[in-house]
Design brief:
2 domains, homodimer, Metallo-beta-lactamase, Chain A, seven-stranded mixed sheet, alpha/beta
């Protein structure tokens, strides 16, 4: 189970109700944070996410509205007692930005920070999931990040194990974890004898800022959730294409084409304050299972 | 008349209700901004202050909670159409910080920004006011800023001018502006013949972060308003002194000793969320005309 928490859902400049981009995946006791716009620390504390969790922050691109909240969040977490190391990943530029801020501002960060400038491909691997970066269509290098849980062994059937004479205990556990076992009588029992089909993990894509492009289609294929930027309504299609942004309709077309299960629109231009219903309608006409994000929205994915 | 607008009144880390330090003086069509903590642009836009006013930003010291909102505010003002030049003043370090952020983050700022690292003394002079910096007691160089309107000529008495035979018109205007005039009969009329006593300008002090010290006393003498940091309640006197911060009581004692007209407490630690009444009481016992600032507070000074 993963909870997606939208801390900031605005674009370029904040509106009354939307701060700048910051979206968190909460999985077990870990936090995976996409972008860190100004105000992130404020919403982060409001949301009670906890400052000392295992955590990786992934920055989509080096525009100010996506990174100006990073120095504040990392210093505030230290102030409030963080001791666990923190990993920050981004496109080229992220290292120079953080280095120069932390060199010019006196601070007392008491935990380790590792910053990595990555090429597209697998950018982070944990025991149970990986994160891949795809380079997309924007005015500067932008990464869409694909979070993918690794495939897990299928469901264990105790009745089948009993029938095959596998005694309850350590051998069951071994089979559940996908290893074959040898019984006392010499018979070999394979995991597939007692397990159902392998279970697919959850796939969530965060696009960052992007116009429609082939890499986004590749990234989003059969995603459980696509968190897609939708800076503009379809009336501003030309502007969106020129700037490397998406409209509601472009995002919905990607979700449809990629056979995604759910689409969540974010990075909404401040000009649509109070006009969000229209944006949502545009997308829903093409892809029914669409949500329009707001600051504070939480979505659970199973 | 000057309006003081409190955009951020927290300290170190934001609380639910307080963003980080940013306080604006609105005088005629100008804005004088003290500090620029994270969230400043958000509150700035909410307050409808206008992004294209004549404007000077004064940074008290180079701790992140007082400057991390600066990059966002200056880029957002450009995005929303600012064309007027902007002056930024601060202690040593402000130039390096802004240079390195604006060099590492792609942006399109379309107006001129002048950044000055100043020594204590007069740091800014306009036609009708000056701003002075006093170095105070903190863990890094901190400037208290003293905003002082220049003395204006006294009130004009038309009856006195008539009696002295000064004809209504350009000569009246000249006298009102403080210049002597010569009448047709050769007599010289001096401004003091027709004007009341010179009118004192408004004096407002913003302390930034500081413990009690002689420079604060000098800066605050007979101020109309002291905007004083009060990070802690009096129970944490030792902590305050150790860190170069003030308690409510220290701020109130300064206001009393300096014969100020009004004290406004700001830079309130997040630990006092919901306990502000107690802080205010502590100060009021010593200096009655005290207000405890909150984000969004506006105070008019005449």
């Amino acid at each position: 189970m993963i909870e997606i928490i939208f801390l900031g859902t605005g674009a370029s400049v904040p509106s009354r109700s939307r701060m700048l981009p910051c979206i968190v995946l909460r999985r077990k006791d870990e936090l995976i944070v996409f972008d860190c716009g100004e105000g992130a620390q404020y919403r982060f504390l409001q949301s009670g996410l906890g400052v000392n969790k295992k955590m990786v922050i992934l920055i989509s691109h080096m525009h100010g509205d996506h990174v100006f909240g990073l120095p504040g969040l990392i210093t505030t977490m230290s102030f409030l007692g963080r001791t666990k190391p923190l990993t920050i990943i981004g496109p080229p530029g992220i290292k120079k930005f953080l280095n120069c801020v932390l060199k010019t501002i006196p601070h007392h960060i008491r935990y380790d920070i590792s910053v990595y400038e990555k090429e597209p491909g697998v950018v982070y691997e944990a025991d149970e999931y990986i994160i891949e970066a795809y380079e997309t269509e924007h005015s500067v290098t932008n990464y869409a990040y694909v979070f993918k849980e690794k495939e897990r062994p299928g469901k264990f059937h105790p009745d089948k194990a009993m029938k095959l004479g596998v005694p309850k205990g350590p051998l069951w556990k071994k089979l559940q974890m996908g290893f074959p076992v040898v019984l006392e009588d010499g018979r070999i029992i394979r995991p597939e004898d007692v397990l159902g089909p392998p279970r697919k993990g959850i796939k969530i894509v965060y696009t960052g800022d992007t116009g429609p492009c082939e890499d986004i289609i590749s990234a989003c294929k059969e995603a459980d959730v696509i968190i897609h930027e939708a800076t503009y309504s379809s009336e501003l299609t030309e502007k969106a294409l020129k700037e490397g942004h998406s409209t509601t309709v472009m995002a919905a077309e990607t979700a449809k084409r990629c056979k995604a299960k759910m689409l969540i629109l974010t990075h909404i231009s401040a000009r649509y304050e109070g006009l969000e219903d229209k944006l949502l309608e545009e997308a829903k006409r093409i892809f029914e299972n669409t949500i329009l994000a707001y600051d504070g929205l939480k979505v659970t994915v199973k």
